[in-house]
Amino acid sequence: MPKAFVPSRRWGYVALAGALLLPLQAEAHGGGAAAVLVRLILEIAADTLRHGAPVPGGPAPAPVPVLIPVSPSPPTEIPLAQDRNPSQLRGQDLLHVPPMTPSPLLVRDFTRSFYTLVGGSAAEATGLMQQDGIEDPAPSVSAGLVGVLTSQFGMRDAGAVASVDAPPAAVPGYVLEVITTHWELKSVSINPLHIVYGMRHYGIYYHAKFRLLSRKDGSVMSMGYCDESPAVKGAPTYDQSLADGGKLIKDMLRTAASGCVSDIGGQYFHIPKPLAAD
Known about the structure:
Number of strands: 7
């Protein structure tokens, strides 16, 4: 049975000598594949001379572990711990932070611009907000969550506090913060199955995040977000949405705020949705 070829230093010198002669042939034939072969042989020769030949049947070197330090990402969702039953929260003060001013409402009119039709950026509707008195839903979400938490856990609504970033008060109680992260009026659907209807009818897309912090030490008791999308059926057209002082936009924003309260109450505070929606 023929022996398997095992590279050694002797073969490395042979390969190196051959590689030194091949450039003459490569030049005579105009380079190309011969030049690539020269480079490959030189790499093999250099590697063999550097490391020597492996020992057939010898033990493989043990792999060296590579330790890569990884900084854990901070959590973005923390449901209220199940062991915090109503008796532990009953009678505790619950303050809320007046929501900060969000970025303006965005409007993406698919019927008036091919650029937006193919995914272009939406326009800020600052003028529309001022003209029709369209307001950020975050205060409604915050008030809804305060109502749910006080009724379900027996907490006491203690009013507003200036900032959630203030030093901990070292007293019992909690602070609730709600922030709108995105709100937009745009087409209810771009599904090809009903694209004609979907592109001509509009709804509110609403995203918000919240935090519930301990006043005693500033620790996060619960945090998360809501992501509300409009119903496709019965959605108004673009002109209908803006008509009558933006009445339908305001209605849709109230619906989005109510859905946000329900979703946060159910997902993060373990409250049945029919109760959280009240």
